[in-house]
Amino acid sequence: MFIAKVVGNVWATRKHPSLEGKKLMLICPVDGMKGTRSGPVQLAIDHSMDAGPGDTVLIIDEGSSCRQMMGAGKGPTRTIIAGIVDSVSAGNKTKKYH
Amino acid sequence: MKAGRVIGRVVATSKYPNTGGKKILMLKPMTWEEVAEAVNGGKDISPKDSGKSVLALDAVGAGYSEYVFYVSSKEACQAFEEEPICHNAVIGIIDGVNLVKGET
């Protein structure tokens, strides 16, 4: 699981049936404390978190957890938004995101 | 999920039978920034330079020179009903991308 920032979204009409009605958000892994990007941009599914652009979110990048969250027995997705970050604290510093 | 562009097709009659008769597409992997620029700005990256191309089974009927996104490993097999042997599977055709350019 890692912290990422929502940096955009993708729309696609022709897609796998299990992606119907799911938002396809573009996320970029960020450093929790500094907020700077620290990885390549990836596509993640937003199943029920309603994260918008600019939000800092929790990403799960693992197949079985993603299928469990989407409630589907089988599914071709792995990267899913699992939560919206309110604040990150490390050492004695805390960074608020809301 | 990674992005790419369909630049060709591979036909292999004698292969392991369990690929479920799916089309094997040849994709050129691209970063999401490149796809955003190509889809919105229409800057056409020439599909002929295959470079490091990737083969993927087709789950949505993607055509030539379309921008698609694909998944790999176990998720690729689960994109199909009969779970064939495959490493990558195309699961969506990109209509539009909206991406905020940011500092890395």
Task: Break the fold down into its secondary structure elements and pairings.
The complex is a heterodimer of chains A (98) and B (104).
Chain A (H helix, E strand, L loop, with lengths): L1 E10 L11 E7 L12 E5 L9 E6 L1 H8 L8 E6 L2 E4 L2 E4 L2
Antiparallel strand pairs in A: 1-2, 1-4, 2-3, 4-5, 6-7
Chain B lengths: L1 E9 L13 E7 L1 H10 L12 E5 L8 E6 L1 H4 L10 E6 L2 E4 L5
Q: How would you portray this structure in words?
A:
The complex is a heterodimer of chains A (98) and B (104). With 98 residues, chain A is mainly beta. Chain A has a single domain (2-12, 19-96), classed as OB fold (Dihydrolipoamide Acetyltransferase, E2P) (Beta Barrel), CATH 2.40.50.220. Chain A is built from one helix and seven strands, in the order E-E-E-E-H-E-E-E. Chain A has one helix at 63-70, and strands at residues 2-11, 23-29, 42-46, 56-61, 79-84, 87-90, 93-96. In chain A, the strands form two sheets. Chain A has a five-stranded antiparallel sheet, covered by helices on one side. Chain A is elongated and about 45 Å long. Chain B is mainly beta and 104 residues long. Chain B has a single domain (2-93), classed as OB fold (Dihydrolipoamide Acetyltransferase, E2P). Chain B is 13% helix and 36% strand. Chain B has two helices and six strands, in the order E-E-H-E-E-H-E-E. Chain B has helices spanning 32-41, 74-77, and strands spanning 2-10, 24-30, 54-58, 67-72, 88-93, 96-99. In chain B, strands 1-2-3-5-4 form a five-stranded mixed barrel. The longest helix of chain B has 10 residues, at 32-41. Chain B is elongated, with a radius of gyration of 14 Å. The mean pLDDT of chain B is 85. Chain A binds chain B through residues 7-16, 19, 24, 26, 28, 36-37, 40-44, 53, 63, 67, 74-79, and chain B through 1-3, 31-33, 36, 59-62, 69, 71, 74-76, 78-79, 89, 91-100, 102-104. Strand 1 of chain A pairs antiparallel with strand 6 of chain B, so a sheet runs across the interface.
